[in-house]
Specification:
Radius of gyration of chain A: 21 Å
Helix content of chain A: 40-55%
Strand order of the largest sheet of chain B: 8-9-11-10-12-13
Distance between the termini of chain B: 102 Å
Number of strands of chain B: 13
Largest sheet of chain A: 2 strands, antiparallel
Distance between the termini of chain A: 55 Å
Order of helices and strands of chain B: HEEEHHHHEHEEEHHEHHEHEEHEEH
Low-confidence stretches of chain B: none
Shape of chain A: rod-shaped
Number of strands of chain A: 2
Radius of gyration of chain B: 25 Å
Largest interface: A-B, 31 and 62 residues
Oligomer: heterodimer
Chain lengths: 41, 333
C-alpha cells in the first residue's frame, strides 16, 4: 500500500516475478544460437 | 444505491462524495480527495486520500482496479464497501516521524539510486533531481524500511533536496557510495532460472562451460537495474566474462549481461529486447529499448550505437597508425 505524507508520496516498492521475461530471453537466445548453428552447417 | 454505467470520472466523483458513509462516524470530519499520482514511466493513477484529523499520513488507494471491479459487474455499493475495508485495514499506521525524510543526517545513508527511462519519464522527472546516464535517468529515493511486503521509499523531490542543502552531484555521489556498499547479485541465467523454476530450467539452458548470459540485480530484486551504475561491479563482470559485454535492459528490476561474441550483433539483441518488452514486461516496469555495451578499454558502459562508432574510430586510427609504420619503415631503408 502506498501512502501520502504532506504531499510526499511514500511508495511500497515490490519486485515482480522475473520468470516470464527471463525465460523469454533464454528461449530467444537458444533459438538464435540454433539458427546460427544451422547456418554454419 | 442504484447501479448505473458510470464513466471513470463519474465513478471517482461518486467514491469521493460517498465514501465517508461507509466508514465509522469518527471519520465524519475527514478530508477526502482524489489526486493524480505519477508513477514510473509517467503512468498516472487516481489515488483516493482520506485524511483523518489526528493523522499526518494516509493510505493512497488507487481507484483504477476498483473501477474494473465495477465494470465487471460488482455493484457500486459492494465496491465502496471494499474500498472502505481496504482503507480501514491500512489506516492504522502511526503518525509519521517527519525527520525520517527531512533530516539529512538521518537520510544520507538510506538514499538509493533508481534507474528509469529518461524519455518515458519526462513528467516524473520534472520535479525530481536526476542525473542522466545515456538514455536513462538516475533518480533518488529514501529507503524507509523493508518487509516481506516490499520496500517503503520516498522519492526525493527538488524541494526535499533544497531542504537538505545539497546539490544533485552530491546526492548522486552519496547514492553511488550507498550502492557500492549494498548487496548485489550477479549470477548465470541458468542458476537464476533453476532458483525460480527448479530443474525444468535445466532443459531450457543446458549446462555450459562458460555461461552465455548472466542476470544482474540487487539483493531484493527491486529496482535492481541500478546495479549497472556501480563501476566496481562492471569491472568485476568484465573480469568474469573476459572483456567487453552487452547489457540488455530486461526491466527496471534487473538487466541481462551477455559476453560479447561474434555470433551476435547488437541489432539482433535490440530486436530481442523490443520483443520481450512488448510481450512480457509491464509498461511501468520497462527500462529501455536500447542495448548497452561495456567498453573494457575505457571502463565505461555506453549505448551500443555509440560503441559501434567508437570501434569504427579505433579501427581507422589503427589503420592510420599501421600506414604510418609502413611509411616510417620504408624511409628507414
Amino acid at each position: 500500500m502506498d501512502y501520502e505524507f504532506n504531499g510526499i508520496q511514500i511508495e511500497q516498492e515490490k519486485g515482480t516475478d522475473q520468470t516470464d521475461r527471463l525465460k523469454a530471453y533464454a528461449e530467444a537466445t537458444k533459438k538464435a544460437q540454433e539458427e546460427e548453428k544451422d547456418g554454419a552447417e | 444505491m442504484e447501479q448505473s454505467n458510470l464513466t471513470f470520472e463519474e465513478f471517482k466523483d461518486q467514491v469521493k462524495d460517498e465514501i465517508l458513509r461507509y466508514l465509522p462516524e469518527s471519520y465524519g470530519g475527514a478530508d477526502v480527495t482524489v489526486n493524480e499520482v505519477l508513477k514510473n514511466n509517467d503512468t498516472k493513477l487516481s489515488g483516493l486520500l482520506i485524511k483523518a484529523d489526528d493523522k499526518n499520513i494516509a493510505p493512497n488507494i488507487y481507484l483504477e482496479g476498483y473501477f474494473k471491479m465495477y465494470q465487471n459487474g460488482d455493484s457500486l455499493d459492494a465496491v465502496m464497501r471494499k474500498i472502505a475495508d481496504v482503507y480501514l485495514e491500512h489506516s492504522n499506521v502511526e503518525n509519521f516521524d517527519v525527520s525520517e525524510i527531512t533530516d539529512w543526517e538521518k537520510v544520507k545513508d538510506r538514499i538509493i539510486c533508481r534507474l528509469i527511462n529518461a524519455e518515458y519519464n519526462k513528467e516524473y522527472l520534472a520535479e525530481k533531481p536526476h542525473t542522466y546516464f545515456e538514455d536513462l535517468a538516475v533518480v533518488y529515493t529514501v529507503n524507509l524500511g523493508e518487509s516481506e511486503e516490499g520496500r517503503m521509499t520516498a522519492a526525493i523531490t527538488n524541494a526535499m533536496m533544497a531542504s537538505y542543502g545539497v546539490t544533485v552531484d552530491e546526492l548522486h555521489q552519496v547514492a553511488l557510495d550507498n550502492l557500492s556498499r549494498s548487496e548485489m547479485s550477479f549470477k548465470s541465467m541458468r542458476d537464476v532460472m533453476i532458483e525460480m523454476m527448479g530443474e525444468d530450467a535445466a532443459m531450457l539452458i543446458p549446462e555450459e562451460e562458460t555461461p552465455s548470459m548472466y542476470v544482474l540485480t540487487n539483493e531484493s530484486k527491486i529496482h535492481g537495474a541500478s546495479a549497472i551504475l556501480d563501476k566496481g561491479m562492471l569491472e568485476h563482470i568484465s573480469d568474469t566474462v573476459g572483456g567487453d559485454f552487452v547489457v540488455l535492459p530486461s526491466s527496471v528490476h534487473e538487466v541481462i549481461v551477455v559476453p560479447v561474441m561474434d555470433r551476435f550483433n547488437t541489432r539482433d539483441l535490440q530486436g530481442m529486447v523490443h520483443e520481450v518488452n512488448a510481450t512480457q514486461v509491464a509498461a511501468d516496469e520497462q527500462l529501455s529499448e536500447n542495448v548497452y555495451v561495456y567498453d573494457s578499454a575505457e571502463k565505461e558502459l555506453i549505448l551500443a550505437d555509440r560503441m559501434a562508432e567508437r570501434l569504427k574510430e579505433r579501427e581507422s586510427q589503427e589503420q592510420a597508425q599501421s600506414q604510418d609504420d609502413v611509411v616510417r619503415r620504408h624511409r628507414g631503408r
